[in-house]
Amino acid sequence: MKELTIEISKELLHKNMQNVNLRRHCYAVGKTLRAFHDYYVLNGVKKEGMDLGNLTTDQWEIVGILHDSDWELTTNDPNNHTIMLLDWLKEYNAPDELLNVFRSHNTRHTHLRELKTLLEWTLECCDELTGFIVAVALVQPDKKLSSVTLESVLKKFKQKEFARAVDRSQIAQCEEKLGIVLTDFVGVALKAMQDNSDLMGL
Predict the structure, then answer these.
(1) What PANTHER family does its record include (predicted)?
(2) Position 94 pLDDT exceeds 90
(3) Three-state secondary structure call for residue 85
(4) Residue 183 phi/psi, 5° resolution?
(5) What long-range pairs does 16-24 form, CB within 8 A, spacing at least 24?
(6) What is the DSSP secondary-structure string of 26-60?
(7) Cys-Cys crosslink for 33: which of 60, 97, 147, 150, Cβ 3.0 to 4.6 Å?
(8) How far apart, in whole angstroms, are the C-alpha atoms of residue 99 and residue 122?
């Protein structure tokens, strides 16, 4: 079986997703998850009963790259979102721990697996956040991530009329589910996106 590398994951993403902005979302989540893996290594896992698991930093990034890779093909069939992706991955050597993240990602529709692990909850909390940070960048005069500050994200977060479609409660779960205060959680994600702004076109 073929190894599931970052490059292979990008190829899968590009093959199945043509929308550039959706691809950039997947890159953003990938780089953010990678940053959180490093954060947990350096700072320890905050939530009792959770651990880092056995996946590598690269595999955390792969999860982000692929988590919505079938979204374009399943937009009108939400019950099949992630099911299609899991089918694609049958020909790759992907550990069950990684596949379980996808099984839990769309659990409201697929009911395959409840969210349990550190990685699963980190994806759940940062998924919407990356889009929110992009929205904050787009209202900057230069539309650049480098102009976004932690304070500006937190200020917009409180303004319910801004980026109304973003589920703020999903992001705020970081405090209960991961033991990370919102300010720190946003800070890690923002820095990860700023450090890889070229991938996001911002």
Answers:
(1) METAL DEPENDENT PHOSPHOHYDROLASE, METAL-DEPENDENT PHOSPHOHYDROLASE
(2) yes
(3) helix
(4) -60, -45
(5) 16/69, 16/70, 16/72, 16/73, 16/88, 17/68, 17/69, 17/71, 17/72, 18/72, 19/72, 20/201, 22/68, 22/71, 22/72, 24/134, 24/199, 24/200, 24/201
(6) HHHHHHHHHHHHHHHHHH---STT----S--HHHH
(7) 60
(8) 15
Say yes or no to pLDDT of 119 above 90. Answer: yes
Structure tokens given for 153 = 């994200």
State both tokens at 127: 């998924």
The domain total for the chain is: 1
Query: 45: alpha, beta or left, given left = phi > 0 and alpha = psi -120 to 50?
Result: beta
Whether 134 and 142 have beta carbons less than 8 Å apart is answered as no
DSSP summary character for residue 91: G
pLDDT on residue 1: 87
Report the C-alpha gap between 82 and 88 in whole angstroms.
10
Structural domain boundaries enclosing 100: 2-200
Would you state the pLDDT for residue 43? 97
Amino acid, single-letter form, for residue 142: D
